[in-house]
Amino acid sequence: MRYDKDRIQERLKTLATQHASPYSTLVCAMGDHWKPGSLEAVEKMVAYTRNEFGIDARFRTIKDMCYEPFDAIGSMRNVAYRLSLIEGFEFLMYLDNDVLPPEHTLVQLLHRHLPIASPQIVYPDGEAHGLATPTLTPDQGLVMCGSVVLSCVLFKTTVFLPWAINNFWGNAIGDDEEYHFTKLYMAGHMPFVDTDIQIMCVEPPHFPLDNKRTAEEVAAAQTNRPKLYVVR
Q1: Are 5 and 51 in contact (CB under 8 A)?
Q2: Are 73 and 95 contacting, i.e. CB atoms less than 8 angstroms apart?
Q3: Distance, CA of 154 to CA of 133 (rounded, Å)
Q4: Pairing mode, if any, of strands 116-122 and 192-201?
Q5: Which residues are paired to 99 by β-bridges?
Q6: CA of residue 90 relative to chain centroid, distance
Q7: In terms of DSSP H, where are the helices of 111-176?
Q8: Which has the closest alpha carbon to 199: 60, 114, 98?
Q9: Closest Cα partner for 207 from 170, 181, 168, 177?
Q10: 195 contacts: CB under 8 Å, gap ≥ 6
Q11: Calpha distance 90→15 (Å, rounded)
């Protein structure tokens, strides 16, 4: 993967806004069921962002609200973005408990200064698991997508302002990511994948509603997931 610390530092200075704390980021993990090495990797990433770049990055675990697997993941995500808005952060990073991000993941995404940005997600077996993004060619810059997996995604907190009162992610499972990214598209936002950085997820992605579908419905949902559009 490509990483140029000096270039990123210079771009962060150039893109600094009038925000009270430019690039301040609340990093939120969904629950506390960490896979081996994941918690340490996330803590190292947050410390690197603070120590090497002077950015106010803070890490917080959102209490697990699920009675059955994934049945309240939407509620947990709602808590995270409301915290980021209330506490005045400019960015929010969602993380799952099975990611292994390189230490520069957050600053690399921040320097893109996009409303929604994700690293390229890969899995140990090299399979796509119903996602388009893991099959992208690495080190090709930004790719605009219909949706991205929420294993690791950086949002500008202003994206969620229209839903400051209402729940964006639904009260419980809600709907799969594609539904929510359709809502974001209607509000003028498209997610980007930064193929210059790849992070490993220990486990394949989970689509909560797949637990309520037949095998044929799951296959159809995977086939119909949004296509990719490459931005040059």
Answers
A1: no
A2: no
A3: 16
A4: parallel
A5: 201
A6: 15
A7: none
A8: 98
A9: 177
A10: 120, 136, 137, 138, 139, 140, 141, 142, 143
A11: 13
Note if the pTM is more than 0.90: no
Quick check: 110 and 55 in contact, CB under 8 A?
yes
Q: What one-letter code names the amino acid at 187?
A: A
Helical axes 5-14 vs 38-53, angle rounded to 10°? 60
- Which of 37-46, 128-137, 195-204 has the largest mean confidence? 37-46
> Cα 128 vs. chain centroid, distance in angstroms?
17
Q: Coil, helix or strand for 61?
A: strand
Phi, psi (rounded to 5 degrees) for 58: -130, 145
d(CA 72, CA 74): 5
The rounded Cα 94 to chain-centroid distance in angstroms is 5
* Mean pLDDT, residues 190-194: 93
- pLDDT at 134 (0 to 100): 47
Q: How far apart are CA 165 and CA 51, in angstroms?
A: 35
> Do 59 and 42 touch, CB atoms closer than 8 A?
yes
Angstrom distances, CA of residue 33 to CA of 38, 88, 172, 184, 195: 10, 27, 19, 29, 27
